[in-house]
Amino acid sequence: MSEHVKSFAAVDLGASSGRVMVGRVGPESLELTEAHRFPNRPVRVPEGLRWDILSLYAGVLDGLRAAWQVDSVGIDSWAVDYGLLDADGALLGNPVHYRDARTEGVAEKVWATVPAAELYAVTGLQYAPFNTLYQLTAARSTAQLASAERLLLVPDLLAYWLTGEAGTEITNASTTQLIDPRTRDWSHDLAERLGIDLTLFAPLRQPGDPAGLLLPRVLEETGLRGPVPVTTVGSHDTASAVAAVPAAGERFAYICTGTWSLAGLELERPVLTEASRAANFTNELGLDGTVRYLRNIMGLWLLQECVREWGQPDLGELLRAAAEVPALRSVVDAGDATFLAPGRMPDRITDACRESGQPVPESRAEITRCILDSLALAHRRAIREAESLADHPVDVVHIVGGGTRNELLCQLTADACGLPVVAGPAEAAALGNVLVQARAHGLVGDRTSMRRLLARTQPLRRYEPRGDAAAWRAAQDRLTRG
To answer: Mind giving me the DSSP string for 89-101?
Structure first.
């Protein structure tokens, strides 16, 4: 391999699977290959829904073994969830899953101390029942939290097991609802009022910071030759995905698609207005002092759950059949908490249509088309409201992540938004992870240079808007009235 090309292992953990990808980066080259993919299967135990973190760690080690020699390792994952360690550094039980029911009704208890409007004005984070703040409030009286000496968010926990060094990466920390996005530091006043001990958290790290070296036992188990550094990346997978948006200029919106759709803008400063709170937009931190101003939408979770309920039919055939179903016959609110929990998703979709007085989708193709139309409509609404609230015009929408493979969803999003959609890359989180490592090792420059490299090297597809814009307005009006 050329001395100007280096290899980086990107550990990228999603809500349903994990993978270790290897990125080879040079001044004019960027190649990504999959070393190992493994399932992420939560487990329901008597006390609730838990992540099988030991299985995930084993998958990471298997992936590093399959990656061969690399120059660095970076880790990203979903947000908000954490593991607790005792005074000896041992894990106190499997991390609680964000879909666990323990946070039901907890937000109201928090708001009794810090009203929702004040909470938003400080943290800029949208209301979601599973934010770390609410999880910690729900855990306040537990023996496990009482015994804890350290709290590590999921990617930081895995990095700790690899290196023995603890840190809290800032983009993921911003999803805890304990960070002030203006100062990019903890809100000590807020934490004190809510009885949350910030000393549980390890020191904050920035993307690009060193996170330690792989321990000798890790080197032995993976077969890697040391020293191998772990480099801090945007450890919230959305932060890494936004870093891999191949945009030219600033007038773009992004949609990071997968189990969730994260639709929004990259801004220089947060939007902390009451109108922004009412619209349920969040201000999460990104690379280089940026803010990810976005809305969480239920995403392809709706379809994933239906497909699981239906016994895993061929997805390609299902999408082809859905494309033949008349557009916008029935739509649901893809951001409704009704759809958050697993189970009975087809019935919940049809129930929502029935209750809103719309035609009830009956076949699998009709339910699939309802979901995709609803997601496109949610994308449209999020982007238009973000433009207005942030006073930030948009000329193009970039879709990155797994949803780029869903051509029907990409076209429907272009139609709904009335804007061109550029789809790709599909493995955006892994690519953003790799590029931050490469930048830390001197191979690429600023975010603009990173995005130019992506645009030159990754396959992208453009979708132009088509169809009747009035039909989308009417569907939105119908949903709003419902």
So the answer is: S-B-SPPBPTTSG
Sequence length of the chain is 482
What are the residue numbers of the active site?
237
Q: How far apart are CA 330 and CA 427, in angstroms?
A: 31
In the beta sheet, which residues pair with residue 33?
22
Q: What is the DSSP string of 318-341?
A: HHHHHHTSPTTSS---TT-GGGSS
Distance CA 10, CA 152 (A): 19
Q: Are 175 and 236 in contact (CB under 8 A)?
A: yes
- For residue 418, give both structure tokens: 């009335």
How high is the pLDDT of residue 482?
Answer: 59
> Which pTM was predicted?
0.93
pLDDT band at 1; cut points 50, 70, 90: very low
What three-state secondary structure class fits 76?
A: strand
DSSP string, 355-382: HTTSPPP-SHHHHHHHHHHHHHHHHHHH
How far is 443 from 124, CA to CA, in rounded Å? 34
415-441 pLDDT, tens digit per residue, is: 999 999 999 999 999 999 999 999 999
Scanning the structure block, which residue is given the tokens 């998703």? 345
Q: How far apart are CA 75 and CA 157, in angstroms?
A: 10
Q: What is the dihedral of CA 123, 127, 131, 136, to 10 degrees?
A: 80
Q: CB count, 10 Å around CB of 129?
A: 18
User: By the 8 A CB rule, do 77 and 10 touch?
Assistant: no
